Amino acid sequence: MKAMSLRLLVAACLLAIPALSLAAERPTPRHARGSPNVLFLFTDDQRPDTIAALGNGHIKTPHLDKLVARGLSFTNAYIMGGTSLAVCTPSRACLFSGRTLWNLENQDMWNFELAEDHKTMTQVFLENGYTAFATGKHDPGFGRNGHFARSFNAGDNLYYRGGHRGQNRTPLFSVTFENGGVTKTKKPADGTFNAELFADACVEFLEGRKGNKQPFFAYVSFMTPHDPFNAPGEYLEMYRAEDMVLPENFLPEHPFNAGVHHIRDEKLMQRPLRGEKLRAQLARYYALVTHTDAQVGRILDALEESGHADHTIIVFTSDNGLALGSHGLTGKQNVYEHSVKIPFLLSGPGIPAGEKRGQLTYLYDIYPTLCEMTGIPVPETVQFQSFKPLLNDAKAEHRQHLSFAFLQWHRAVRDERYKLIEYCVDGERHTQLFDLIADPHETRNLAQEDAHAGTLARLRKLLQDERRRLNDGETPSPFTTQLGKDFWTTCEGAH
Ligand SMILES: [Ca+2]
């Protein structure tokens, strides 16, 4: 793992070198007239507690609040963790492929080109007569014949990798699709904030859809509120550092070595964390959330203008959360709630307005769910589970438990009430057991308490069952196989 230690210094979201693969031939689309459109709004590193209408009294998100009022809020939606320092990248690979974290092929620390026989979320819509449009961040698979090329047939203002020196200094690409491949043309940064450029591209796309009956899947992949935390001045002025409230689980330092302190995201702020600096950082982060929310508003207005609003499913979610002072951490390279839980809103025709769903879901369950909602067959390679039954039945069952992982250091499992996290770092093992109903901020570790010994044993067995069920330690990629072997070997030999 020495080579990996050096890589810990590399930027956590520097991106994969895509492997080339041949683009798949597209079958003739079936007639899809009358199927609902999909507008998929995706942010980057947005904590689950950053929507005003869902209980954050310090943030302004008027447009996300409208989506809350119009549809369903999933209050226990999660990612699976990360098999890369860039948690964003495996999360997006799981979303697009429908494959669980330990069943992604061709994966190393930075490479996430998807296997060609794993049809992507938007590819199946393309093959069923939709137009599939993309704007924003699309790191993996953006080579000439990578999986981006088979996932979309329209797009503009796309981010690939490198050169991102500020939210208003992001080099983007225009794209042309031909012969199953994609050609990228670089657009130099002109000082416009990238969230505005992504909204511009989507608004232009929606304006072009007026009167067009062919359904569309529009994927808007914002790069915010991921750092760097520079927002337009008028948004920065909305939040004063002294008014910001630190997270309830704020700590100046993580209480033990979680293996992550060398990672770039954990080095953005000095330790011990100081409340004053953290409040300033939080103010900038909130400014980015509000600026992104304003761009969501522009897109929703354009959808209304296009005449398609009544016939469009709208998804709003994020690729992972962020610690930002919780538990003494600043990054997303951990499996605490603030980092693996994500905001998740769903609205559209036939979906109840203003209701919540607390069932355990993975973000990636949205792929088969959208297929079922639009009558598109779910490919056999998809390993996630549609939550369509939840849409109109608040009591429908979905998942009984979820499991999470980060590299070779953290494994976790949660059921409807309890969460177990096991850490195995440098030969040392730490165990945390939280009651998420009584202690949603994970501040009281019950692992040593006799009264909870039965729960601890039960969740440890569940974690082992999940290890086997999900192929942790026996994946299709040598790199991720080694991560699992390292964790479980260290864990069994540690004290
Ligand atoms: Ca992210």
Q: How helix-rich are the residues, as a percent range?
A: 25-40%
Overall pLDDT level: 92
Report the CATH topology name of the largest domain: Alkaline Phosphatase, subunit A
N-to-C SSE string, H for helix and E for strand: HEHEEEHHEHEEEHEHHEHEEEHHEEEEHH
Count of discrete alpha- or pi-helical segments spanning 4 or more residues: 13
**End-to-end gap:** 20 Å
Q: How would you briefly describe this protein structure?
A:
By secondary structure, the chain is of the alpha/beta class.
Explain this structure to me?
This protein has helices spanning 2-7, 62-70, 88-97, 121-127, 147-151, 194-207, 233-236, 275-306, 337-340, 366-374, 388-391, 453-469, 478-493; strands spanning 37-44, 72-74, 77-78, 81-82, 131-137, 154-159, 172-178, 181-187, 216-225, 312-318, 344-347, 355-357, 361-362, 402-406, 410-414, 418-425, 428-435. Residues 1-28 have low confidence and may be disordered. The two termini are 20 Å apart. 28% of the residues lie in helices and 19% in strands. With 495 residues, the protein is α/β, with parallel strands linked by helices. α6 (194-207) packs parallel to α8. It folds into two domains: 32-399, 3-Layer(aba) Sandwich (Alkaline Phosphatase, subunit A), CATH 3.40.720; 403-493, Arylsulfatase, C-terminal domain, CATH 3.30.1120. The protein is built from 13 helices and 17 strands. Residues 44-45, 88, 226, 319-320 line the site of calcium ion.
Defining key terms:
495 residues, alpha/beta, Arylsulfatase, C-terminal domain, 2 domains, 8-stranded mixed beta sheet, 5-stranded mixed beta sheet, 17 strands, globular, binds calcium ion
